[in-house]
Write a structure and sequence with these properties.
The chain is α+β, with helices and mostly antiparallel strands. The two termini are about 20 Å apart.
Length: about 500
């Protein structure tokens, strides 16, 4: 999920003009009427599409409203005021005005056919965000996930990730951007930030995405979690064996105690002036459960209007955003004058790829630096925690994409949509893949360089049919109760959840 919330998607093309849609597979029982005020599209099993600009009423096994039915080619239409639920393969709420953008898919028809063919399968699939791969000897290597928590247009944000694979061939850095989940991605900008530094140093983005160059790093001398366990072996090295909250603490989360922390200590010489904490980490799947099971599923059909309308209003967006920022993320504190004092906050990074960040710490006052990492119970996985004895800010060189291709061939139009954050999007749907090339050139003699990937955009989660039941009508309210509900559900699902998550990735074409 690097959320915050979403609604969903398929797109209808007319040249390069794209109407943003929210694709919603439907499975409804014949019970009390449900009214949806947002504009709705229904994709039918025969490939035709019905547009209900004034919303719909769902009752007695049918969908009613003033609609217009289009054939698969969108070239002809007829008026309609009722369709059977048995005809519906998927539903979506959509918004106007149109967005201008490029799409990876070859046609609107191909997108609709994927929805029709995949409607049964997507019920169980997880979602997340765009994933980025580099190529190591022709083998794809997962590098990062983009704007994991920008789950609606109003939450669009810039995201910066460190790329681990520095493979450059003939001065070209090649990356592959994939849509491997049941979502529509709206990618506004992608660019490379190059940091040049001495061979014996490394570069990392800090908590705000600024470049820090760090020197020699030390492992911690001790690491103890809030439950009193010695977890040093789990965080000393980058080996994919990470720390996690013990079962008992997760199960016993309550309104009085739903946080956790990790305390690490580093031996240093007095007077170290510019130390920096370096973290290799990622989120657990708690955020995914919060979004799916609490924010969306518990609202049922009400989530369509909540995501399509309510969250576009300033008050609702601010309420949700401020609550999320207060509770989620990672707080970094340093022991000073007899207490732990906050020095930085790192936003959630996403549950798929490992993220690396560096945080500058105050100068040491003795022979030990003590750091506390605080967070909502089991919201983080820490693979490595280390201390750089020196750090300094660094400038970056921007390199824009100059070539792009998809499964259909070269796409000279795509780079123009990614050069700036201008609300002109590259739009991808499930199974889409686009290859991007960046002319980074060769490294200067005697110097090394690290690449950051800077992106801007958002993604829209497809509403699963299992979520759209008439039994769930509770409006989502940000607060401790929602977080505790997510922790309770997550504690029951945690075992094996990541394996199921990884197994549901959609093969790209």
């Amino acid at each position: 999920m690097k959320p915050l919330l979403s609604l969903v998607a398929c797109v209808t093309l007319s040249s390069c003009v794209v109407h943003r849609l929210d694709v919603i597979p439907v499975e409804v029982s014949e019970e009390a009427p449900i009214t949806i005020e947002s504009p709705v599209k229904a994709h039918l099993s025969d490939g035709s599409t019905v547009v209900f600009p004034g919303g719909i009423t769902v009752a007695d096994g049918s969908i009613r409203g003033l609609g217009e039915r289009f054939d698969l080619t969108l070239s002809s239409s007829s008026a309609v005021n009722r369709i059977s639920l048995d005809e519906v393969a998927a539903m979506e709420s959509y918004q106007t005005p149109v967005n201008t953008g490029a799409t990876v898919a070859a046609s609107a028809g191909s997108s609709v056919l994927w929805v029709v063919g995949g409607a049964a399968a997507i019920v169980a699939l997880f979602g997340s965000c765009p994933t980025v791969y580099s190529l190591d000897g022709g083998v794809p290597v997962l590098e990062s996930e983009l704007f994991s928590y920008s789950i609606a247009p109003s939450f669009q944000a810039r995201d910066i990730d460190r790329l681990g694979n520095r493979s450059v061939s003939d001065g070209i850095l090649e990356l592959e951007v994939r849509n491997e989940m049941v979502e529509t991605h709206y990618i506004d900008q992608i660019e490379i930030l190059e940091v040049t530094h001495p061979l014996d140093k490394s570069a990392y983005p800090d908590e705000k995405g600024r470049a820090l160059v760090v020197g020699r790093r030390l492992p911690p001398s001790s690491a103890v979690d809030q439950s009193g366990r010695d977890v040093l072996d789990a965080v000393r090295t980058a080996d994919d064996i990470s720390w996690m909250t013990p079962d008992e603490r997760l199960t016993n989360s309550s309104a009085d105690d739903f946080t956790d922390h990790l305390d690490v200590e580093f031996p240093v010489l007095a007077g170290v002036e510019n130390p920096a904490l370096v973290l290799r980490m990622r989120n657990s799947l708690l955020n995914t459960v919060l979004l799916y099971d609490v924010m969306l599923q518990q609202q049922g059909f009400g989530a369509i209007d909540w995501l399509g309308h309510d969250l576009q209003q300033f008050g609702s967006k601010a309420e949700l955003g401020l609550w999320y920022r207060k509770h989620m993320g990672l707080t970094v504190s340093v022991w000073k004058n007899g207490a732990y004092r906050k020095v930085a906050r790192i936003g959630d990074q996403g549950p798929i790829a490992w993220s690396e960040r560096a945080v500058r710490l105050p100068a040491s006052e003795g022979d030990t630096i003590k750091v506390r990492l605080s967070f909502v119970t089991d919201n983080w996985r820490f693979d490595q925690v280390s201390l750089a004895l020196e750090s300094e800010s660094a400038s970056t060189r921007i390199v824009s994409v100059n070539e792009a291709s998809t499964a259909e061939g070269d796409r000279p139009d795509i780079p123009g949509y990614l050069v700036a954050a201008d609300r002109k999007y590259l739009i991808t749907r499930p199974r889409d893949r686009v290859t991007l090339k960046f002319p980074v050139g060769d490294a200067a003699y005697g110097q090394s360089r690290t690449f950051f990937l800077a992106t801007d955009g958002y993604y829209i989660e497809w509403m699963r049919s299992a979520w759209l039941t008439q039994e769930h009508r509770k409006k989502f309210k940000p607060g401790d109760a929602a977080l505790l509900a997510a922790l309770s559900i997550y504690s029951q699902k945690r075992d094996g959840l990541r394996e199921r998550f990884e197994a549901t990735k959609i093969p790209v074409r």
